[in-house]
Amino acid sequence: MEINQLQPKSLFTYFEQILKIPRPSKKEQKIIDFLVDFAKNNNLDFKVDKVGNVIILKPATKGKEKSKTVILQSHLDMVPEKSTNSTHNFETDPIKAYVDSDGWLKSKDTTLGADDGIGIAAAMAVLTSTDIEHPAIEALFTVDEESGMTGAFGIDPNLLKGSILINLDSEDEGELFIGSAGGMDTSATFEFYSEISDKNHIAIEISIDKLHGGHSGDEIHVGYGNAIKFLNRIIYNLNKLIDLRLAFFEGGSLRNAIPKDAKAIITFENNNFENFKKLF
Predict the structure, then answer these.
(1) Which residues are catalytic?
(2) Are residues 233 and 106 in the same domain?
(3) Count: domains in the chain
(4) For residues 258 and 220, what is the distance between their CA atoms, to the nearest angstrom?
(5) Do 212 and 95 belong together in one domain?
(6) Are residues 163 and 210 in the same domain?
(7) How far apart are CA 223 and CA 22, in angstroms?
(8) Is 186 a domain residue?
(9) Given CA atoms 160, 44, 168, 225 in this order, what sign does their dihedral have?
(10) Where are the alpha helices (DSSP H) in the chain?
(11) pLDDT tens digits, residue range 84-110?
(12) 82: which of 18, 26, 110, 278 fits an S-S bond (Cβ 3.0–4.6 Å)?
């Protein structure tokens, strides 16, 4: 089945177009231009504010002119996460999506970007609908949600008149959320000293990859493996039995994705190699 054969047809037709537009956080100009062209082609008034947020306006349908204006809000950026062996370039390449045998829409080796591409598509479908009764609509598309919500923080509230806002960035079909626990970012800096490895030391690279991954907000409670935690646990337990040194450590790629790969290089005395293999 092709993507544009999925129902509702208008929703997935727009989503298929969005899949072709690179839009990692802080680099959303192509999707901004796409929405501006969309508004012009459909004779809809629009605004682009100083931080890049796009607002597209649609008048109320007949009989709904006195109803409260509704804001439909979604965000333009996506999480640029890919598999370890993928050569995908999120700044230039379209997302390679397909419908699997069970009817699920998926992507090959990358995040799909339904967060929040499907929200963008839903707003576009309403903006071009001819058979949906609605009050005046302000479709708000904000930038940089995934890496700091700078679009939402930077918007000029005077640009909007609506008193009801529906955020089109939920995860569960058929459910509405009326609150959020919020989140916190932490940056930590530690001092360390370096030393030259002893001549009688051997260097070993340990890597963990191809774990499930997942969204650190929506799936943190599911129990998917965290490659950074796993690798630290291995090194911690090895160090109890072998006097080792850490030469290199790297893991994960995005702060809002559960790390699915990590790599470290450790060194220890040559005569501990057999013990290391047994322990490992």
Answers:
(1) 77, 145
(2) no
(3) 2
(4) 8
(5) no
(6) no
(7) 31
(8) no
(9) negative
(10) 9-19, 29-41, 114-127, 150-154, 227-241, 273-279
(11) 788 999 999 999 999 998 889 999 989
(12) 110
